[in-house]
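Narrative of activities, Objective 1.

The group set out to show that a structural description can be obtained from nothing but a protein's sequence at a throughput compatible with the screening campaign. Below is one input-output pair from the validation batch, recorded exactly as produced.
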Amino acid sequence: MQKILLTITPQQWVILGAFLVILIPIAVGFSRYKKLSVIQQRILLFCVVAFCLDGVGRVFWIFSIPNLFLGHLSTIAEFLLLANVYRFALRGFIKPKVIPVAMILFTALAITNTLFLQGFKFNNSNIKIIESAVLIIFTLIFFYKLASEMIVKRLEQYPMFWINSGVLIYFSSSLFVFLYSNYLLLYSKQLGIQIWFIHALFFILFYIILAFSLWIVPRNSNSHG
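Output recorded for this entry:
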């Protein structure tokens, strides 16, 4: 383990330790839990689950224990938790069954991919691409909802606006990474590390945005966002 830690570059340290930023929205969320809306509570749950899974994955990596299987599990958990947020955020704007059906289909695709295409010994890039694409679609639908309804006067005080923006930014970067990471690693290991380093920066930005979204107190306590 000591030899592994001594050979890690500064960029790899950022990639390895980026998950610690999740503690920021977790701390903010629990400190203001009684004031959180339904959607904010679900984002807090998302952060807690993400931190636990990422933390276990980092520990496994340090002790040279295979951890790619955790990526398969975390992708499903990540998508289901975020899709559930959009199930509330888009309530009344799209048909009620659309997102639950998407959640079921995604889970089925993820399991199929693990069983027949990319097993636990491989990175589940196929499903990460699908996850990113679907979540980007959800974000665009939500922005269209905001633009068409015109009921939010100050977007900067609307938690779901920040959540949606964070999801769009992060999963747009993820889509690029998982589309090209395997090719780049074959072409140049150093270039692949650079791409993952940039992805880690977007990861950090994502959770800082989520922390800000949890800091904002919704004006209407009955509001979902």
